[in-house]
Every structure is written in structure tokens, then in C-alpha cells.
Amino acid sequence: MTSRWPASFATYPANGGFGERVTITELLHKAGYATGHFGKWHIGPEEKAGVYGLDAVRSIDEAGKKMIETTRGRDARVYDEAIRFIEQHKAGPFYLNIWSHISHHKIAPPASYVDKFKDVVVDESKFAAPMRAKFAACKARGGDVSEHMRRYLADIHTMDEDIGRVLKRVDELGLRDNTVVVFSSDQGPAPLEASAMKDPEARKQKGRNSKPQSAESEHSRLDSMGYVAGLRGGKTGMYEGGVRVPWIVRWPARVPAGRVDEKSVLSGIDWLPTLCAITDVKISTGDFEGEDTSAAWFGGTHTRTRSLFWKPSSPGSSAGIREAQWKLIYPTRKNGGDLELYDITTDPAEVNNLAAQHPDVVQHLSTKVQAWVATLPKEYIKTNDVDK
């Protein structure tokens, strides 16, 4: 939304919003676009039309109760509202966020959808080692791997159906060739961690002020069967399993169909400058931390000129940097540990730590990440955990 590093906000944007930083919706609104937001909010305390240049806002609350369906997918009403917005603004330029709650906890597919997968039985031998570890954690906590996988697949299936409804309506309205549709995710799948219900210290370490979860809620977390093949890690981590996510673009008039780009490195930080380039909205690129990656969208290759950074919003936490083929995870006083350097192009699973073999690369990237961390807030405003 802002093309600014999340760690640069002293207050977690889910609670505090974006402050004075301009958003893509404000820029497009000023350029004459109708703007809407549908689904999960998670971007500040003011959840209403007019915020961030949004003409329409229809969202789901954090508990996942508002606008939730029981017979269709749990986000079906969100997609209904999004489709209605498209119908209302078909004659002019429009922009909308559809932020699906799926597949975030709590996974809650209707029984009729779970039944579609009743014959699914997980063959654990077909999965990479990180997923087999997740299966083991599931069973150690009393779960049936196949049962939880069926629920996860059913939940994802409802999202597929709803996205299909959006695409179908765009086509029916004659907007197919001049409408850009992008599908992505904010992070990799959630791991099956040690039970927060049974481990108060684990909750403390995560900075959570919430009460222990019920046994039913803890069991439902085992439905989190997201898979990242052989990649290491997942949600909240800096390994590829946490930061490498799907990025699918449909724009029949401009984007080659069926193409898979394995060369370009894109980030959510690039969303604002890329859309501004595509829509001819003029910005000062120095005000933003992402870059225009539209060449990759249109069938070419994008070569980054700026580094990518990752860091939790807490002082002293470890940080990460990606530059060209190299990725460095830089431990700090809070986390400890060794420097980790990986060649992502040849080792996406991050198995071989090459820090000892490439001290020059370590020094170069360490200097950069240290300089970046020095620009970040020295303190972060503590708030309740809103992403349970």
C-alpha cells in the first residue's frame, strides 16, 4: 500500500495505520479511479470509506465473524461486494483490494465442501521433508493429517470458486482485456508450532497478550496445511518458505498467458511504483522503497537495482537482505546465532550456509543491512497481537 518497509513503522500498521505516508489507493483516487477495499482490513483503526482515498470499504473483522458465510466459502460475501463494486464502476477506471481471509486461521469450510475431498488420503512420502515435519507435529498434537488436509483443501477450493466468479464477471462486462488482476499472498503458510495454550512462555516470547486458546481452537490450528514444497520455514520467518509467495498476473491484452518467470525478483514493496508506472501516475521514486517491476509483468525480466530487506518490528531482532542471488540473515543481540548466507538461485531450500566461503559477500551485505537497521525506529509501540 505504501511501498515502505513494514519495520519502518514505529507502530504496527495493522493497529496504527500508515500515518502520513501516501498509499496507492490515494494516488489512484486522485488520478480519477474509483477505489474499494473488500475483505480483511488490518491497516489501522479507522475502518471506513474515505480512509486512504477509498470510496468503499467492506471488511471482515479479526475474529472472522462479520460478512462470513456458512453455506458457501467463508469469504463469499466479500467477493459479492467486490463484484458489485466492479459492476457499479465498469464505465470508468477502478481499483480494488480483495483481501481474502482464506487461508488464515480459523479455517472454516462448509461441510458440503469438505465432503468434496472425503476420499483424500495423504501419502506423506510424496511430500518434502519440511512438510513431513509438519505432519509429525500434527500427529504429535493428536491430529489426523488427512482430516486436516481435507479441511484445508476445502477452504482453498472455496477461494478458487470466488476468484473464478470475479474473473467471470469481469469477462461478462467486457472488461477482460483492459483489467489487470493480480493474485498474491502476504507470506508463506503458518507452521504448526508448539501449543501456545500449553506454553505461556511461548506466548510471552511472541509478544502476545491474548489469553490461552481453547483446546478446540488449538486443534483447529492443525488445519493449517499450507505447503511450500522443499522450502525452509514459513509465516513470520525470513527463510524462503516465509517470504516466497505466489504472484500471478492476468491481463490478456498485455501479459503473455502461461508464462512462468523464474528470473525476476519482485516484492510487495514494488506494488505502488509498478502500478503508478502502468497507470501513468507520476511519483518521485526517491519517496518510495520499491521499484517499477512492470517489465516482468509484460513478459520481460526485471533486474533489481535496490536490495530487499526483512525484519520483525522489534528492536534487536534479526534482519535479512536479498541482493542478486545472495540472501543474508543477520542475527542481532536478541536472537543470537550465526550469520547465514545462501545462494538462492542454486539453493532455494537454504541448506548450504556459504558465509565461511564468501566473507567478501558477507561483509558487503552486513554493511548494507546494518545501515538499513540504523534508519529504523529505536522503539516500537507495543500493541495487542492482532494476527492470531
Structure description:
Helix 3 (76-88) packs parallel to helix 6 (145-172). The strands form three sheets. The protein has a four-stranded antiparallel sheet, with helices on one face. It has a three-stranded parallel sheet with strand order 2-1-3, sandwiched between helices. The protein has twelve helices and nine strands. By secondary structure, it is an alpha/beta fold. The chain has two domains: 6-124 and 155-189 and 243-306, Alkaline Phosphatase, subunit A, CATH 3.40.720.10; 309-374, 2-Layer Sandwich (Arylsulfatase, C-terminal domain), CATH 3.30.1120.10. A hairpin with a 2-residue loop joins strand 7 (319-323) and strand 8. The two termini are 22 Å apart. The longest helix has 28 residues, at 145-172. The protein is 29% helix and 11% strand. It has helices spanning 13-16, 24-30, 76-88, 111-115, 129-140, 145-172, 200-205, 215-220, 240-243, 271-279, 294-297, 359-374, and strands at 34-40, 56-60, 94-99, 181-184, 247-250, 308-310, 319-323, 326-330, 340-343.
